[in-house]
Amino acid sequence: MSGLMTLSRFNLQRKRDYEGASGDFTLLMNHLALAMKIVSREVARAGLLDVLGKTGEENVQGEQVTKLDVLSNEMLIEVLNDLPMVAAVASEEDEQIRITRAGRLTGRYLVCFDPLDGSSNIDVNATIGTIFSIRKRETVGREATVEDFCKAGTEQIAAGYCVYGSSTLFAYSTGDGVDGFTLDPNVGEFVLSHPNMRIPELATCWSANVGNARNWLPETHAFVQHLGSGEGRYKKMSLRYIGTLVADVHRNIIQGGVFFYPGDKKSPNGKLRLLYEAHPLAYLVEQAGGKATDGVRRILDLVPNGLHMRTPLVIGNGPEVDLYAELAATRRG
Ligand code: AHM
Ligand code: MG
């Protein structure tokens, strides 16, 4: 066997670390990785096939659905449908949860995902990604319900993402640090390339849609003033905004930085969704040594009031996330 530490080998080794582990979780992770390899392949040849552009329909968020959104969603659901350990899935693209074929009664796991994050970047060849989150349910023996999904982010037992960029990178955590794997297209395997990812101590960039500045609340303007002050921790700061949450957060984990899509005068709850965007990324960023807040509370403590609940999100280096929360608290008095 080659010396490559593939994702499957890594998972197998992890499984051996947990006495009595059934292997169900390992199998689930391997299938998620398989789905992402397929999505990666479709993304890479998108311009060659008739999968670019919009379907003409709107999703539950009122946003235009792109063909690749639909394809990625179906790919993930198809792969998870036949796994007896998965009871149900919740996706950004579907209004309701979907009960799976094989695990509807027996499955112990619930999987949430944003199948293709950064939809507006699809047709322009910019980086897009997939985000997922896994919870265990306590209701084995009957069909899962929305209530089973609507639990605090602290209940996640694993989360991860895949970015389809200059290379395809899969990163995940089971609560024991974050590890990243790059897809070797020749071998067709994810290979360990970023063991134990840790956010650097110093933030070097900030990421936000400054086009929304006219609607920002005073704390967001104050925050940006600090970040651009050139003083203290902010001697060397750049603005970097891809417009794909998972790609912006991934870069900030690697290079140090803070991403924010805050609540503003027009959208008090911001844009991003709690269950399948903010929760998993907050879990990963905390595992990498950072923090995430909605401006008042830790993201992982928030309990969704529905599958598609939105939340303000400030995520990245701890001191910057704390600074935003302090500025917001000062304004509230
Ligand atoms: P999506 O899941 O439909 O792609 O929407 C979420 C995306 C995030 O990836 C990104 O951070 C944000 O929307 C960008 O929004 P904007 O175009 O308003 O800057
Ligand atoms: Mg998204």
List keywords for this structure.
alpha+beta, five-stranded mixed sheet, 2 domains, binds 2,5-anhydro-1,6-di-O-phosphono-D-mannitol, Fructose-1,6-Bisphosphatase, Chain A, domain 1, 333 residues, single chain, D-Maltodextrin-Binding Protein, domain 2, eight-stranded mixed sheet, binds magnesium ion, globular
What does this structure look like?
- With 333 residues, this protein is an alpha+beta fold.
- The chain folds into 2 domains: 188 residues, Fructose-1,6-Bisphosphatase, Chain A, domain 1 (2-Layer Sandwich); 128 residues, D-Maltodextrin-Binding Protein, domain 2.
- It has an 8-stranded mixed β-sheet, sandwiched between helices.
- The longest helix is centred in the first third of the chain and has 21 residues.
- It is globular.
- The relative contact order is 0.13.
- The mean pLDDT is 93.
- The site of magnesium ion has 5 residues, from strand 5.
